[in-house]
Amino acid sequence: xxxxxxxSSEEIEKVRQNWENLAAExxxxxxxxxxxxxxxxxxxxxxxxxxRIPFTNEELCLYAVGYNPLKIGYIIRGKQEIEFNLYPxxxxxxxxxxxxxxxxxxxxxxxxxxxxIKGNTxxxxxxxxxxxxxxxxxxxxxxxxxxxxxxxxxxxxxNIVINxxxxxxxxxxxxxxxxxxxxxxxx
Length: 187
Prior knowledge:
- Helices cover 38% and strands 30% of the residues.
- By secondary structure, the protein is α+β, with helices and mostly antiparallel strands.
- The protein has one domain (9-186).
- Strand 2 (48-55) and strand 3 (58-65) form a beta hairpin.
- The longest helix has 20 residues, at 167-186.
């Protein structure tokens, strides 16, 4: 399972173009922060991209820093009481399950074997995890996907490793996250 993607200089330029094109397509704002003005780091190491896309009175935000997984987040204000946490199932989690680690299983053997899912409502988790979303998550490395509530604000966050050279991968990610947000708001 690949946990980072290292881009060549040419690929970094393509990634940047993809982010700029996404900003134009989704009527968002793209910016690059210079993380190494001395030029001692490679282009990939100094990469710090931010994309803000307006969506349902808030902003869907994508962040990329160096070789770290892509982070996509959204703030939801309101009365949502839903919380969940989805993360990879590793050996220690498998042992934990033997000793009573509580998780939601969704009835998809491949997905249930790859991820631990915790949350306060299994019904919502089943609605949120469409076949398209499950497939996308299974095809990519996901360190964390969560919705946390704190002081009346819910923070949706997905950290994921995708190939940002492929425009369709980025676009699919944005479209899937929009569907998740609408599911949360409708629940």
